[in-house]
């Protein structure tokens, strides 16, 4: 039996299987983008694909906390489209 990797959602702070979460990556050059494959290099943050966490993403400023920088509104819109 293989081990299922768990990751924490940056919004609800729950541990879930990696396959149930969307990875968001900040690359070395500072670009932030969603990563469907889960293989991109860089600092990663995970968010649940459920509607509740997607709706609370903006209000909680979880992306800003995770990456310790300002996140442009356009990038947040791209991430929201991936989640919904």
Task: Walk me through the topology.
Blueprint: E1 6-8, E2 15-17, E3 21-26, E4 32-35, E5 43-48, H1 51-60, H2 62-67, H3 73-83
Antiparallel strand pairs: 1-2, 3-4, 3-5
Q: Strand sequence of the main sheet, in spatial order?
A: 4-3-5
Q: Please estimate the helix content.
A: 25-40%
Return residue spans where pLDDT drops below 50 for at least 5 consecutive residues. Answer: none
The first-to-last residue Cα distance is 32 Å
| Strand percentage | 25-35%
Written as H for each helix and E for each strand, in order along the chain, the element string is: EEEEEHHH
Number of helices: 3
Averaged pLDDT: 91
In angstroms, what is the radius of gyration?
A: 12 Å
The strand count comes to: 5
Inertia-based shape: globular
Largest sheet: 3 strands, antiparallel
User: Which structural class do the helices and strands define?
Assistant: alpha+beta
Could you please describe the fold and organization of this structure?
This protein has 84 residues and is of the alpha+beta class. It is built from 3 helices and 5 strands, in the order βββββααα. The protein is globular.
Briefly say what this structure is.
This protein has 84 residues and is an alpha+beta fold.
